[in-house]
TrEMBL record:
Residues 43-145 form the Cytochrome b5 heme-binding domain. The chain crosses the membrane at residues 6-23. GO terms for molecular function: heme binding; metal ion binding. It comes from Penicillium capsulatum. Keywords: Endoplasmic reticulum, Heme, Iron, Membrane, Metal-binding, Transmembrane, Transmembrane helix. Belongs to the cytochrome b5 family. MAPR subfamily. It is found in: Endoplasmic reticulum. It comes from the Eukaryota. SUPFAM superfamilies: Cytochrome b5-like heme/steroid binding domain. GO terms for cellular component: endoplasmic reticulum; membrane. This is Damage response protein 1.
């Protein structure tokens, strides 16, 4: 029987097809791009306001000078969320008072930070437990300083 018998030719073509499917060029695997790495920065209240979750921006809020990236909780703090007033703001007084009213926010963004000196023991405990919750759940991405503070970045 010759090597070029029909059965051998069929087997050879089958082998060639298998080789092709095994080694054919494939689409490169593209992984979804993750969030940009968080960098620790100094924020003034005006700068922090940019991170209020509008559009596809991140949501940050500050508690006693620490800036948290609360973007994973965008349904709470993003536009239309129940705590949207806190987005891009110093939320300390509101958290201490269990209130998300506008009155709880520092009005003058260019003025001094809220020193919270008038808070009583209960309010301070409230604030502390919120702070602990945020520390467990969210990344600290910066520090909040008043406009004009020596640490504030030049605008
Ligand atoms: C009508 C009363 C309220 C109801 C029914 C309510 C309900 C809720 C619920 C269901 C959660 C989600 C809990 C979780 O899944 O971890 C939550 C979280 C939260 N609530 Fe309220 N809440 C109320 C009042 C308030 C008030 C007055 C404040 C003001 C400080 C507040 C601030 C927050 C904050 C900061 C979170 C955490 C969100 C996070 O984990 O990032 N809530 N609330």
């Amino acid at each position: 029987m010759s090597v070029a018998s029909p059965i051998n030719l069929i087997l050879l073509s089958l082998f060639a097809v298998l080789l092709y499917f095994h080694f054919r060029p494939r689409q490169p695997v593209s992984l979804p791009s993750g969030p940009p790495p968080a960098v620790f920065r100094i924020y003034t209240p005006t700068k922090l306001l940019e991170f209020n979750g509008q559009g596809d921006r991140s949501v940050y809020l500050a508690v006693r000078g620490r800036v948290f990236d609360v973007t994973p909780g965008k349904n709470f703090y993003g536009p239309g969320g129940p705590y949207e007033n806190f987005a891009g703001r110093d939320a300390s007084r509101g958290l201490a008072n269990q209130s998300f009213d506008e009155d709880m926010l520092t009005k003058d963004l260019s003025g001094p930070l809220d020193d919270l000196k008038d808070l009583d023991q209960d309010q301070l405990e409230n604030l502390q437990s919120w702070e602990e919750r945020f520390s467990e759940k969210y990344l600290v991405v910066g520090k909040l300083v008043a406009e004009g503070d020596p640490e504030a970045p030049a605008s």
